[in-house]
Amino acid sequence: GPETETLLYLDGVSVSFDGFKALNELSLIIQAGEMRAIIGPNGAGKTTMMDVVTGKTRPDTGTIYFDGNVDLTKLDEASIAELGIGRKFQKPTVFQHHTVWDNLELALAGRRGTFAALFRREGSSERERIEELLGIIRLGELRDMEAANLSHGQKQWLEIGMLLAQEPKLLLVDEPAAGMTDAETEATADLLKEIAKEKSVVVVEHDMTFVRALGVKVTVLHEGSVLSEGTIDHVSEDPRVIEVYLGR
Ligand code: ADP
């Protein structure tokens, strides 16, 4: 069978806020090269899960292994980012008064001077990489446009391109389709599928149509741990999942 390698392993991770368990012994494995969708009702712990992986929140108990034996719970946010974990928040934070091209150039330059620069892709000049990124994010034709003039969806894609410029091994994406038109939502699913050919991607999402379009393994979180896992058809027929969603 195909070789699989664990990229991210959350092992019994718990986080409490004032005695409330946002994550409750959460265990989760993401394979290298995998795209995974994480769903779950409000308050299920999805954001907190991304917060503990990126070092924004430190777990009370549990271990988070990344890329071998590196324990992320011992590292700060900057070190975790340097190891190759990129996070896309819902709100795009592009440089509004710079062009699409310049935004990508700035993102590439931002990598310089960090130790991650040692691992730059060989043989690919900066211009070529920017061209490549423009192709992936479908903004080639809009390279000279000021970011401020892009649509909401296009800004999201630009920010994804800027994250890719950091050459992450794992990309965490928070509700990429939120606020998008149907056409943009469809394009975003295609774009993420293309990115997932090169990287591991974890997508936190509410939009079931979008999750279905991704066609990847789904993890359902509830009360800070995994309620169900499998294909979208499998989890949506799981009685525990139905109960949790209909109970609201
Ligand atoms: P989701 O992203 O699935 O909606 P969250 O991870 O945001 O869920 O939240 C899980 C629970 O933890 C929620 O009940 C939320 O109110 C609580 N929570 C999250 N972050 C904090 C915080 N910084 N302080 C207090 N409570 C928090």
TrEMBL record:
The protein's name in its UniProt record: Urea transport system ATP-binding protein
Alphabetically sorted, this entry's keywords are: ATP-binding, Nucleotide-binding, Transport
Show the GO MF annotations: ATP binding; ATP hydrolysis activity
Q: List the taxonomic lineage.
A: Bacteria, Pseudomonadati, Pseudomonadota, Alphaproteobacteria, Hyphomicrobiales
Offer a single GO CC term for the protein: plasma membrane
Please name the InterPro entries in this protein's record.
AAA+_ATPase, ABC_AA/LPS_Transport, ABC_transporter-like_ATP-bd, ABC_transptr_urea_ATP-bd_UrtD, BCA_ABC_TP_C, P-loop_NTPase
Q: Where is the ABC transporter domain?
A: 8-248
CDD domains in alphabetical order: ABC_Mj1267_LivG_branched (cd03219)
List the Gene3D superfamilies: P-loop containing nucleotide triphosphate hydrolases
Q: Which organism is it from?
A: Bauldia litoralis
